[in-house]
Amino acid sequence: MWLRKTNRVQGFRNLMTVLLVPKVQPNVPKYLVNTHCSYCLRQCTPCYKLKQLPFLTKCNHSTSNTTPQINSGNIRTKLRRYCTSLNSPSVNETIDVLSKEDLSLLCSHIQKELKTPVDELRAISRYHFDGEGKAFRPMLVILMSKACNSQSNQGHRKTILDSQYRLAMITEMIHTASLIHDDVIDASPTRRSKPTVCKIWGEKKAILAGDYVLSVASGLLARLRNEEVIVVLSQVIEDLVRGEFMQLGSKEDKNERFHHYLLKTYKKTASLISNSCKAAAILGDSPPEVCDVAYSFGRNIGMAFQLIDDVLDFESSSVTFGKPTTADLKLGLATAPVLFAADKFPELDDMIMRRFKEKGDVEKARLAVQKSDGIEQTRFLAQRHCDEAVRQIKQLKSSPEQAALISLAKYVISRLK
Ligand code: GRG
Q1: What is the Cα–Cα distance from 163 to 328, expressed in whole angstroms?
Q2: Which atom of ligand 1 lies at the shortest distance from residue 184's CA?
Q3: pTM of the model
């Protein structure tokens, strides 16, 4: 039995569109041409540039909310609190977005699927399904499934379908397989505060274990017997690989460079999130417009998620040194904070091109980011994506899961890890 039966409400819940926005200023990446003020986040005509930097625009509205609020707290606790605080008669139960028990159940269902008789392969492939991840993707799938299902007028469409729950598992499996491979590529010693698969078992076994998790996920996907969902999720796997591949290269031209970064971000992170949301809607037999909303919501949340990930690399301190980890710089990667900073400090351009390989590059780039407003710009961009995600999901009929998805969008900006 895939789903636990319980009385409480269960579960949670364009790059291209934006690219189609007409170009209004020369040398401004089309993607960043703003129709929303980056400060007050209201829709307005762009009227002046933010601190001389060409990318973001600002209107004449109040600047009281110039800095997005940074909250702390555990994602699950926060969502639970948010949902219980809703003063609505339909929400007198707690939406346990994905409680610790739900998460360990999901992990144990995944572990059951990874049942190869080869002892070591079984142990390696199960290693990361230990409930230590944030489970952000399955959480979204479960919430989105319920939000889409509740659009239907039929009363019985309120719970998540078996196929949608399997999709949540598949999504987490694809994510985990990509993390295992990513740790090999980056030669990372730790992940989620424990040694990586490649650190313990070596690169060859890590690659094979990642392949194994992916192959089992593919089998589960095929068994959903939904051709459209198979196509959508296959695209995700292609995107993950292409996104990772794009990350190996750099672009010399500044505008191309930012576009390259955003496209890479979509493929590496937002594709899985957006297409999983879309697949959840498809499995729920949602009409095309609901599937589009699910996709757009996921795409914007996914972009924001990665942008904030890139900010956290400059903000989260290493326990040992009390300094930001700047793991991306050390890997030669120029993420949004650096790309924005390069506008103020053109000396970063050469460092970006040589992938911060020369002695002192990483530290110089870190300081330049600190002295610029690259972090602030990146957060604003993430905020805009979250705003758009909220705007999209509000097109659905209200439901507790829709409220939780809105809360999840806010969490993406405020998260600390
Ligand atoms: C095997 C499918 C497959 C792909 C191979 C290596 C590779 C190609 C792709 C790497 C993609 C990758 C690692 C993207 C990073 C996305 C990201 C933001 C990961 C961190 O996600 P969190 O914070 O992690 O949700 P937790 O630990 O909470 O699950």
Answers
A1: 37
A2: 6
A3: 0.80
